[in-house]
Amino acid sequence: MSQIQHTEETSNKYCRIGDKLNFNFKNDIIIPEVMHVVTKMHVDNRGWFKEVYSSDHFDIKIGPFPLVCMSETKLAGAIRGLHFQVSPHSQGKLVSCLQGSIFDVAIDIRPDSMTFGKWTFSKLSAENNKMLWIPPNFAHGFQTLERDTKVLYFCSDTYKPELERTITPFDENIAIEWPLEVTEIKDRDKNGDGILDLVRD
After folding, report:
1. Is residue 83 flagged as an active site residue?
2. Tens of pLDDT, residues 126-171
3. What is the set of domains in the chain, with CATH numbers?
4. pTM, entire model
5. In the annotation, is 57 catalytic?
6. Where are the beta strands (DSSP E) in 14-166?
7. Which is catalytic among the residues 36, 83, 140, 159?
């Protein structure tokens, strides 16, 4: 698979927000189906306020979301993923970070796609107002960059454990450049399938 240089600029330059918008949606430069979302924060002397979700904006592009989940990860350097659900309940995820920060990754696992096996990322934090949309039929995972990190997921379908699948985050055919030394990962994730196993199946 061809190598693509992944930089923070790849994400940031597609996340500019207009002055009058509460949300701005920009397609990823590497995998256009992945979408970077920035929320506008309204600040005054009391603190700040921002919208996290609005059906007027999101449902047209990437919704609706019948399931909302949260996770907390205690260690920096921990990896969750790479996870996805198969048809008929393929699950897209809109991911944001409520506390701490993460290196959030989307991987195209559609065998017939021009970007099959490619990955892209966004650094999400409690301060930068970014979210990442990972469409259905994509795998998702992240590495925590700080201790005590909390993540919020809006999911496009309900959770079906019998349809959940795992790809190892260390698959050499994907070659994700995790930014930190791995401190913790579940055996199920570490020993997950390779992406080429999806083609063989």
Report:
1. yes
2. 889 899 999 999 999 999 999 999 999 999 999 999 999 999 999 9
3. 8-200 (2.60.120.10)
4. 0.86
5. no
6. 23-27, 35-39, 42-44, 47-49, 67-73, 79-85, 93-99, 101-108, 119-125, 130-134, 138-144, 149-155, 164-166
7. 83
